[in-house]
Design goal:
It is a single chain. The protein has 100 residues and is mainly alpha-helical. It has one domain. 25% of the residues lie in helices and 4% in strands. It has 3 helices and 2 strands; from the N terminus they run ββααα. Strands 1-2 form a two-stranded antiparallel sheet. A hairpin with a 2-residue loop joins β1 and β2. The longest helix has 14 residues. The protein binds zinc ion. The site of zinc ion has 8 residues, from loops.
Length: 100
């Protein structure tokens, strides 16, 4: 788990700069889901809790609208969430039924 990560563990949004590198998080806030890298996404349980809140309570809204890609595709994005951070995937399946 010491690899360099560029994808938000909660929402799958992809960055040009690492979100996690050698076990250290950038400390940035995800533009899409609002998670604080290194604080709320360190363990799976926290990731699943934050994702649930983002999806259920915030309706998976893009947190910083001015950085939202023009053709933002939520379902394409959540497919990028790495396997080890997906949990059972039921919640993801619920918002994007075709999501494998
Ligand atoms: Zn995110």
């Amino acid at each position: 788990m010491m690899e360099t990560e560029y994808i938000c563990r909660v929402c799958g949004f992809e960055y040009d700069t690492p979100t996690w590198e050698e076990g250290e998080a950038s400390g940035d806030i995800c533009l899409c889901c609002g998670v604080l890298f290194g604080y709320e996404d360190g363990i799976l349980k926290a990731i699943l809790a934050f994702r649930k809140e983002w999806i259920i309570e915030k309706h998976a809204k893009f947190d910083s609208p001015k950085y939202m890609p023009e053709n933002w595709d939520l379902c394409a994005q959540i497919k990028k969430i790495p396997e080890e951070w997906r949990g059972d995937g039921r919640l993801l399946e619920k918002i994007c039924p075709s999501n494998g």
